[in-house]
Specification:
The chain is globular. The relative contact order is 0.09. 83% of the residues lie in helices and 0% in strands. Helix 3 packs antiparallel against helix 4 and helix 5 packs across helix 7. The mean pLDDT is 85.
Length: 214
């Protein structure tokens, strides 16, 4: 396992940020090819919306999975997390744009009416709004300026992802096995996060106790 993780880490170190962007844009290029070649014959608008949304959701999951992957296997992809996060926000923005433009025909009143009738749409919009501050502050200047507040702000990825998964599940009339897989992965990531938070809190209590004894 160590040899494999070492090789993967070596590949990760050599992979430039533009390379991550190039890989991340491949699903978008494939989707564009399908549209232009007429590969989407049955309800292409829904197909475009779903493909964009699911790619964005996968990328959010990748961002959340990077820390446990490092802890459990030693594979360190932290340096690529920002690019993955920005790609996720890009796909989700395109997903929202596809709904407003292709589905609603840029009729804002109709879109607002749809929001009222379908609460799962509200969840998707709120998830996207929560991600906007993360995109705006995903730069070195913001990290330096905000300090610890930057980390607290970027915890918004968790409620955003939960809402995105609920949005995805709720729009299904009957939840398919794929939907339960998404839910199970999210539950596992949340449990891991809560366990790590508890461990850090316990360590902080121990350090504080030692400091008091001095």
């Amino acid at each position: 396992m160590s040899a494999v993780s070492d090789r993967l880490n070596a590949v990760s170190r050599r992979l430039p940020e533009w390379g991550v962007w190039l890989l991340g844009l491949l699903p978008l290029a494939w989707l564009a090819f399908q549209v232009l070649s007429g590969g989407m014959l049955v309800d292409p608008v829904k197909a475009i919306e779903h493909d964009l949304g699911k790619t964005g959701l996968w990328l959010l999951f990748i961002c959340l999975a990077i820390p446990p992957l490092r802890a459990l296997t030693g594979v360190n992809l932290i340096r690529h997390r920002r690019a993955a996060g920005l790609l996720a926000i890009l796909y989700i923005a395109l997903h929202l744009l596809a709904w407003i433009w292709l589905d609603m025909g840029l009729l804002i009143s109709q879109a607002l009416s749809d929001l009222v009738k379908r609460p799962y749409l509200i969840m998707g919009v709120v998830a996207f709004l929560l991600l906007i501050p993360l995109a705006v502050t995903s730069n070195a200047a913001s990290i330096r300026r905000m300090g610890r507040s930057w980390r607290r702000l970027h915890l918004l990825i968790w409620p955003a992802t939960v809402l995105a998964v609920l949005h995805y599940l709720w729009q299904m009339k009957i939840i398919r096995p794929e939907g339960w897989i998404w839910a199970a992965i999210l539950a596992g990531l949340l449990i891991w996060r809560l366990i790590q938070a508890r461990i850090r809190a316990r360590r902080e209590q121990i350090r504080t106790g030692f400091a008091d004894l001095r």
